[in-house]
Design brief:
Elements (H helix, E strand, L loop, with lengths): L8 H14 L2 H9 L6 E2 H8 L3 H13 L3 E6 L2 E6 L4 H11 L6
Antiparallel strand pairs: 1-3, 2-3
Helix pairs in contact: 3-4
Amino acid sequence: MTTIDKLTAEQLERSSAMLKAIAHPMRIAILTHLEDGKKLTVTEIHQLLDIEQSTTSHHLGILKDKGVLGSKRDGKNTYYYLKYNSLGHVVECVNKCSVVIED
């Protein structure tokens, strides 16, 4: 595991930008659908989340711009995927941390 003191300032900035991009409820939802190597189109994602296609495109653009997602064009479709499989662990961690345990 990498310790914080072994990261360069540039790596820390990039990591921070990625975490900021992820830190939105809809973007976390998008990432959960792209875990385990899944590749989905804008249409598939907007249907899964029941949100407008333009809103989906906006969120995908932010995630791609910050290096969270990659994309691959296939004919008329562009497929989005997690650029790094380890990002699925971030979502998993956030989900575990957000579970409310009631006494």
